[in-house]
Specification:
Layout lengths: L1 H49 L2 E2 L7 E2 L3 H8 L1 H36 L6 H9 L6 H11 L6 H8 L13 H16 L1 H12 L3 H9 L4 H9 L2
Helix pairs in contact: 2-3, 3-7, 3-8
Length: 226
């Protein structure tokens, strides 16, 4: 009987500790959850609600249901703008994902080797991801300025004046340049994730492959990449 009571007390104490841990987790998550719901999820759902209304000002009151969406797809003016925006989004996404993941995998593979200055290069690659989008946009606007930007100055200095272009002022160049700018900012994220995967590969496996005569190229495609 006494053993049963003692066991119940111990179990109760364990449950109490577990409950306290859960409460602690909730308290730590609560501020981030409140901020997310207030500034991200809340405005998103409110925008969806407002899309079913029409009127003037910030609080339209005339409910029209899906008429706004019907106009979006049937009115030639809005339809062209909408599908143009969708096309540009897919182009941006395609350039961003292909170039960013390719560079991220390349950088991660290089950083997986032990060489002098490796931590410095890790910092250089990941630092842009810590900058705000506003700072990145302003920085690259200065760098790509057609009159005194660093890119055109360097091209002129090395004798490539014909390549000194208004990078953000040409219709066929603006979107790719903006996409590559975004790649520059966020390439550190896939680099870190790929690097975490590469460092998880057993050293014995890599050493065995080298002993069997595999080149670094073979090791990358047959072991690291898969």
């Amino acid at each position: 009987m006494s053993q049963t009571i003692s066991s119940a007390k111990r179990n109760g104490g364990l449950l109490s500790n577990e409950n306290r841990r859960k409460i602690t987790w909730v308290l730590f998550l609560l501020p981030a959850l409140i901020i997310y719901l207030t500034f991200m999820a809340g405005p998103l759902f409110d925008s969806l609600r407002l899309s079913l209304y029409t009127g003037e000002g910030y609080n339209p009151t005339k409910f029209v249901g899906f008429q706004n969406y019907i106009d979006l797809f049937t009115n030639p003016l809005w339809r062209e703008k909408f599908f143009g925006a969708v096309r540009h989004t897919f182009i941006f996404f395609g350039i961003h994902m292909i170039v960013q993941n390719s560079l991220g995998l390349l950088f991660a593979n290089l950083l997986s080797f032990d060489f002098k200055g490796r931590n410095f290069f890790r910092t250089i690659i990941f630092t842009p991801a810590t900058l705000s989008v506003l700072v990145t946009g302003f920085l690259w606007t200065l760098i790509l300025n057609p009159n005194w930007g660093a890119v055109n100055k360097i091209l002129i200095a090395v004798g490539l004046r014909e390549w000194a272009l208004p990078w953000l002022g040409r219709e066929n160049l603006a979107l790719p340049i903006i996409s590559l700018t975004s790649v520059w900012q966020w390439v550190g994220m896939p680099t870190v994730m790929f690097l975490a995967g590469l460092t998880g590969i057993s050293d014995e496996l890599l050493e065995a492959a080298r002993i069997d005569g595999a080149t670094e190229w073979d090791i990358f495609w047959r072991i690291k990449f898969p």
